[in-house]
Structures
1.
Amino acid sequence: MRILLACLFALIAASSRAEEVEVDVELFLAVDVSRSMTPRELEIQRRGYAEALASDEVVAAISRGALGRIALTYVEWAGRNDQRAVVPWTLIDGREAAEAFAAKISAHFDSAMRRTSISAAISHAAASFEGNGFRSWRRVIDISGDGPNNDGRPVTWARNAALERGFVINGLPLMTREGMGAQWHLDDLDEYYRACVIGGPASFVVPVRRWEEFPMAVRLKLVQELASAPSDLSPGATPATFHELTQPTYDCLIGEKIWERYFRETLP
């Protein structure tokens, strides 16, 4: 009886797997909408992603893949319990699909949310890949944000857990100074992202220092993510060893310490 049940479960799993659409890459776009972002910045982000996704460069990068199609989702995040899917997992197999996805991103603009939990964004992203209807050899979590983790579990805990499952995490640190909450900003946010957020084979950081740079930065980042192939990876590299060997030393709890110090100094 146990053997029969085991065979039945194996057949069900194989059938479910066969129904998944194979793509070149599954890409989770996790976009910061914490309260330190102004309404103007939130709009720049949405429009920047929409413009990049519909650009000739990104559409061409998708078409150059072995299968010529990717799976994509766009999710905004802030605190540990604040993640909202703007566009769910979607098949992008050409210009028409890319433009339709871009139109959904820029259809309306939601308000900001409180706190900054990069760790929750990573954990939420990793969980969303299961049962998303797609499969690929490469699963990428793309994190953009304007400050360090200050809510939820330590960012390295979530980062390392995702790396152990084979994810690649790339970063788009927003190093602008337009929004409120200057006390949360880091002058070397790009170094924080390199040390504490990104990881996995061929992972990278694209810093944005002025909002005028944002659309082009997103475009370049997407093309680089979509152009990556197994040949780009170091021979024998694994997500954990790749990260450990390439990242500098950094206090990855700096965001939590800034938060604690701020309230210790402001509360009576």
2.
Amino acid sequence: MLSILIPTYNCNIVSLVKELYKQAKVCNIDFEIICLDDASTNVEISEANKKINTLQNCLFQILKSNIGRSKIRNLLANQANFQWLLFLDADVMPVNNSFIETYINSINYQSEVIYGGILYENTPPAENQMLRWKYGKKREALSKEKRNLKPYLRFLTLSFLIHKNVFKKVSFNEDIPNLRHEDTLFALELQRKKVNVSHINNPVYHLGLETSQQFLLKSLQSMEALSLFIDQGLISYNDTLISKIYFYIRKIYLHHLLKYFFVNKLLRVYFENQLLSKNPSLFLFDLYRLGYFCSLKTHK
């Protein structure tokens, strides 16, 4: 019936697995939980996660070398024994104790991919995590109605159910650098293959908030990946909002101005100080990323 698949790296997932195990047992279904550790560097966490192997139908295995986010998900799918695959990121936790049951009950004869959504806790985190928290609450924690308006663009891979036959047709791209946007490529491939993506109300909390500094760095890596994938023809300018805006402003010759926002040292320091503050502006965050993207494209 259900294979629950969790890739992890330097993250204690014992509580998550125990919760999923408990819910699956209540549902009285055939299930397994497979967790693959992508060669974590934190030995203490890896040792703690070995407790998972004491649970029936659960496997925790440490890979010998780091293979990246795309390959490890494909490997998990290959090891799965059941037809429905539930992928979960390591830093999430179901909001409701009926999480597994809700996913199972949402399956019908048309089901191919089902996405339950994401939430962030209402209590603000530490000041140095405000940017990630604010971005998540405003841009990712969307109702199923809003997500269904753009079912592929608003699909995230941190918690989704997919039929194994569909995954065989649309897997994660292993040929790309381990930067960012592997989930974007996956969603776009679902769209190109005309795979039905259903959005339901079955969220998980995203608990693993990076610091604002880490999130800024990842956002720049994301722009680098986006630029590369556009150059390689894997993504078109119309596929993401940032690249679509760039394509428009380039037509009216404003891309050099946006580039200046990033390459000018004083302006960049101003942006970064604001984004690392306790009240970061998502508008400035968008300008910061767009400025970097413009600098990447106009450098060529």
3.
Amino acid sequence: MRIFATLSSPVRLNLLVLFSAGLLFWSALAAMLPTLPLYVEETGANSITIGIVMGSFAIGLLSSRSWLAYLADYRGRKLVMVIGMVAVAIAPVLYLLTESVPLLIGIRAFHGLSIAAFALAYSALVIDLSPPQQRGELIGYMSLVNPVGMALGPAVGGFLHEWAGYLPAFLVASGLGFLGLVFTLRVQEPRLPDQMTVTAVAKPRPHFWRLLVTSPIRIPATVLLLIGLAFGTLSTFVPLFVQEAGVALNVGLFYTAAAIASFAIRLLVGRASDQRGRGLFITVSLILYTLSMAVLWIATSAPAFLLAAIFEGAGAGILIPMMAALMADRSHPNERGRNFSLCMAGFDLGIAIAGPIFGAIAIQTGYRTTFGLCAGLAFLGLLVFLTLSSKDLPHSLRFALGRGRDIYAVERLGFNS
């Protein structure tokens, strides 16, 4: 963590406040993971309905991407972080007020706005504060809020649910969000030298979604779509799969194991990616995701489920930070929010459609088959990245294996060429 010694004291303090806000955000969000599918199931919902409710999280993500990216780039990152934190604080209370499936779908979509806002603005602000040659390292350290929060949140939520029911579990999730709002309001945002003022831009650019087909964004978004399908299936159906398999495992431990693996791997890969490029580590992450889904496919014991969690956590711990760094490499400062948002839209869409699609499959074949299919999707994502991540097959293979630079980068960062 020597990078922090090179930063000024005000910047270090600002990063600490920002880190605290991020930790509370992810803890609040993750506290709902082991309990919400069970809460929806108690309303009498079947697998398809549970999938629709859980997958509607991504409706909020997708529908808010364009205007949140505009706000982040032209009105500031802090405003968008506040929006996200307010949403994550309010949503758990709203769940408690109804057992109506249509209302739960709407609340879940509103909940999705939280991650669209906060994760986007948090990543963009970290990038703003990062020296370009150490961008991957600082992103790696600051992204630790995700695995730590994903470890604490499910453990707390799962324990409170088993001990006292849904009410305290949901209220604590809300309280974490409101505490995070206090820290978010104290974050100091630097002004970028080339950031446009709001008066210079009348409306969000109409070609926002058209940029998805451009070469720097298309393949990362496609890969994240395939992984989003796997992740959406995992986050929706693991609690129910554990029950179906008759395995004696507190499902909160699954998410905790994934978070610990994600934490450990992020300490290693950020700095290394500044030296070897992002491609190699994205490839490794896709291999780990494939292994995770394959192990879930055959899992019949608690150790097997935890092994799958470790593979998934390690894969996630590499993939999202590396995609953030990759989009930063490929963007000018006032494009970072937009480009990262577009790239993550693939992930959002995967999450949105995973629940209904794989819920329908689960009714016919059981949850085990769904994870076998997800292993195939993750492997397809690996093949797409290996062969299409650059302008042609030779360049793609070199970039994906860490033997060539990213030809779409707007800054020459000194990777292997």
